[in-house]
Amino acid sequence: MSSDGGKTLSANKRLAGDVCPCCKTSLHVASDNRVYVGWRQVLKDDYRHIAITSSTDGGESFAPAAIVSDDRWQIVGCPVSGAALATNSENRLKVAWFTAGDAGVPGIYSAESADGGKTFSPRTLISDVAGAGTPVLLFDAAEGYRAVWGGRDENVLAGTIQSNAANTDVREIEGLYPVAAVADGQLFTSYIKLEGEKRSIWLSNISK
Length: 208
What we know:
Elements: E1 26-29, E2 35-42, E3 48-55, E4 66-67, E5 83-87, E6 93-99, E7 107-113, E8 124-127, E9 136-140, E10 144-150, E11 155-162, E12 165-166, E13 171-174, E14 176-183, E15 186-195, E16 198-205
């Protein structure tokens, strides 16, 4: 942590061991100042599931980690696919992640916590048209949760999650490795576009 704008940093604080080394670690600060951290935990027999912890004192201490969902994904290797975190106006936590476990079809799933990440609702499939990678999850007061993720065929997909399920209105553009942001109710994504041997970075408004 830093309390002086990044000029100095405190000593490292270990939150977990046996963490998937290439899966993206996620950090989110809710409007009530609760700090959430998410990662992919390596469990017994190489099951690799998303774990969440949170802090209510600015990162001084963290609650015991909770596994979001038992996906039954057993893989001897790192999926290079972490979790996305977002909270709504009531500070309910939503988590989105990719899995290919035996518990269901491969795809992007989401689950929600109303108690600060201690327990989670049963997971809901957002899309089975998804490739491995870390999705983007944002909250828009007008539209709800907005998700952006990479597909299987060099494409970027985006959808709105309502009541723990995704809309049928999923938009698609050609590209890879998306990032996204919401501004004035508009959903923007930036991504890499392939044109033969060329690579270029694009920015698109993919709102309804």
